[in-house]
Amino acid sequence: xxxxxxxxxxxxxxxxxxxxxxxxxxxxxxxxxxxxxxxxxxxxxxxxxxxxxxxxxxxxxxxxxxxxxxxxxxxxxxxxxxxxxxxxxxxxxxxxxxxxxxxxxxxxxxxxxxxxxxxxxxxxxxxxxxxxxxxxxxxxxxxxxxxxxxxxxxxxxxxxxxxxxxxxxxxxxxxxxxxxxxxxxxxxxxxxxxxxxxxx
Length: 200
What we know:
The structure is a single chain. The chain has helices at about 10-25, 35-45, 65-80, 95-105, 115-125, 140-145, 150-160, 165-170, 175-190, 195-200, and strands at about 1-5, 25-35, 50-55, 60, 60-65, 85-90, 105-110, 130. By secondary structure, it is an alpha/beta fold. Strands 2-1-3-6-7-8 form a six-stranded parallel sheet, with helices on both faces. A two-stranded antiparallel sheet has the order 4-5. Helix 2 packs parallel to helix 3 and helix 7 (about 150-160) crosses helix 9.
């Protein structure tokens, strides 16, 4: 049976997806975490390790993608294969989807998708492939190629409707630093307003 770990701060999502996956008879949910700290602890001790991790992009004030390098460190320290990562998120913005793949995710599924699409994504990962619904493959990577990792992170938070103060708090930076980064982002993307940047 395929072992799966769910990392999501919404209990309804965890319980709903977990129950459905278990009901297929193909998968076993071997653990769940509601924060990145809980996820670190769980993956550091879970035996056997999971083959698939279903990870939410937004974990309250935490960025779910921050767990991917942590997972890499855990797997290296434990000398175990790295699980495939399926992002399951409420966000359907092409920039956020591209950022997830750049960070190391293997699949991206919207929380509004049918459960059958989750199965398709998991099967793709198990076959060594990537998965994303074709309707999301509309991002022009040239727009974002010049952004630094920090600038990319700021755009990601901005697209999740965070204001500058919330972004600063989330990243542990001061407000002036965020404003300076945004000024550079506007120049690099050609956006002339916050709304235009969100809609790119």
